[in-house]
Amino acid sequence: MSCEVDLKAYVVGEVTRNERGVVEDHVRGCQSCREELDRLNLTRSMLASLEDEEIRAASPLCRTAYLSRAGGRLCGAPGR
Amino acid sequence: MIFREVEDRDLIAKARRGHVEAYNVLVSRWEKRVFNYLLRLVGQREDALDLSQDVFLKAYQNLKKLDDPAKFPGWLFRIAHNEAFSLLRKNRPEGEMTVEPKFAESSGGLFPIESTLAVRSALARLSDDHREAVLLKFDQGFKFEEMAEILSCPVSTVKSRLYTALDLLKRTLAPVNTGGRNELRS
Fold this sequence. Notes:
Distance between the termini of chain A: 53 Å
Strand content of chain B: under 5%
CATH topology of the largest domain in chain B: Rna Polymerase Sigma Factor, Chain: A
Order of helices and strands of chain A: HHHHH
Largest sheet of chain B: none
Number of domains of chain B: 2
Strand content of chain A: under 5%
Number of strands of chain A: 0
Oligomer: heterodimer
Mean pLDDT of chain B: 85
CATH class of the largest domain in chain B: Mainly Alpha
Order of helices and strands of chain B: HHHHHHHH
CATH architecture of the largest domain in chain B: Orthogonal Bundle
Number of domains of chain A: 1
Shape of chain B: globular
Helix content of chain A: 55-70%
Number of helices of chain B: 8
Shape of chain A: elongated
Low-confidence stretches of chain A: 57-65
């Protein structure tokens, strides 16, 4: 990729408003960057499709037990 | 009467004074995020559960060392990072292949199950450092600077890890992205 725009920074949301505009203007006129941006966006969408697991479903320990186990050791104020 | 949600900073202030119930509310707000981060890092549910308990216990014990309550999320994930990597180093000598994580069946969603499995498998094949960069950015939504604090490394390192991981994931997931049309692409 010879173009100087940072497509990955754009995809991960680490660009300023101005930089975002620069990337968007660039990809309108550059097919290879547009295709690369599509691939990156698809990858990001797939990562976002992963659902979080519930703690309760993940273990026979229900949350109450989990908290009371931890809470049992939480007597008094936190350490200095 | 207007009910206003108690802010994390109020819960932190109470917990610092030894108010265990306030801390339990804080835990209930953050445990799912921390647990899933740990699960995707270490790959085993029981390990992730044990680590979650250790993380919240350590956080409680060190709560008074947290200078700025607004930095609680990054501070908490820094503890989680340290706990996870301590276990990973113990369980997996350097250079050993990543173990495929065991997750519960997906309940479905926007993408088909094959796609979900492909993403999980692709994530599992990344190095621990690369996978963690992806998790902190995409799952947890931290900014580069926050990630650098969590990982105790320069922003340039965070960026490099994340960008490398993105390239690897893109290549691995490309055949899935295109519905298998690129299956022969190496």
